[in-house]
């Protein structure tokens, strides 16, 4: 609020932003995000942030999915469809896909597999999300 910013959409906008980072544009996050996340990969800028994002691309780049994640994604997808879609007359897609995505992230990035633990963490994460974008 009260700060200058530019908003770009589409592939050409993304290309412009990422190819001109620290030249014509800098990474900026609202103060609520910076307060909740503290100094981390998401909120760091400059050369340090750029270097850190390069290192993370090994785990999140396109070929990382084939190398590291496809088997787990397939397993979680099959279980999720069986538990939340099959036999249902109606499926509310947004909350169902949100829980699927969270469960997948828990399994891939934290090696959590216990549904009860994932559910408890999801409840806490939803509280956290409510504070991410807030009016100061």
Would you write up a description of this structure?
Keywords: Iron, Metal-binding. GO terms for molecular function: heme binding; iron ion binding; monooxygenase activity; oxidoreductase activity, acting on paired donors, with incorporation or reduction of molecular oxygen. Helices cover 67% and strands 0% of the residues. The chain has 136 residues and is mostly helical. Helix 5 crosses helix 6 (115-132). The longest helix is centred in the middle third of the chain and has 23 residues, at 62-84. It is globular and about 55 Å long. The mean pLDDT is 82.
Secondary structure: elements and pairs:
Blueprint: H1 10-19, H2 31-37, H3 46-60, H4 62-84, H5 93-110, H6 115-132
GO molecular function, one term: monooxygenase activity
Keywords: Iron, Metal-binding
């Amino acid at each position: 609020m009260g700060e200058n910013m530019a908003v770009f959409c589409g592939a050409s906008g993304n290309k412009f932003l990422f190819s001109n980072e620290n030249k014509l544009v800098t990474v900026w996050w609202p103060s609520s995000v910076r307060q909740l996340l503290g100094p981390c990969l998401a909120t760091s800028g400059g050369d340090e942030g750029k270097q850190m994002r390069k290192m993370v691309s090994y785990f999140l780049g396109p070929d990382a999915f084939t190398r590291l994640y496809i088997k787990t994604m397939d397993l979680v997808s099959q279980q999720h469809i069986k538990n939340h879609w099959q036999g249902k007359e109606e499926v509310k897609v947004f909350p169902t896909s949100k829980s699927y995505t969270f469960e997948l992230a828990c399994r891939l990035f934290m090696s959590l597999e216990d549904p009860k633990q994932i559910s408890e963490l999801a409840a806490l994460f939803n509280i956290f999300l409510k504070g991410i974008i807030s009016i100061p």
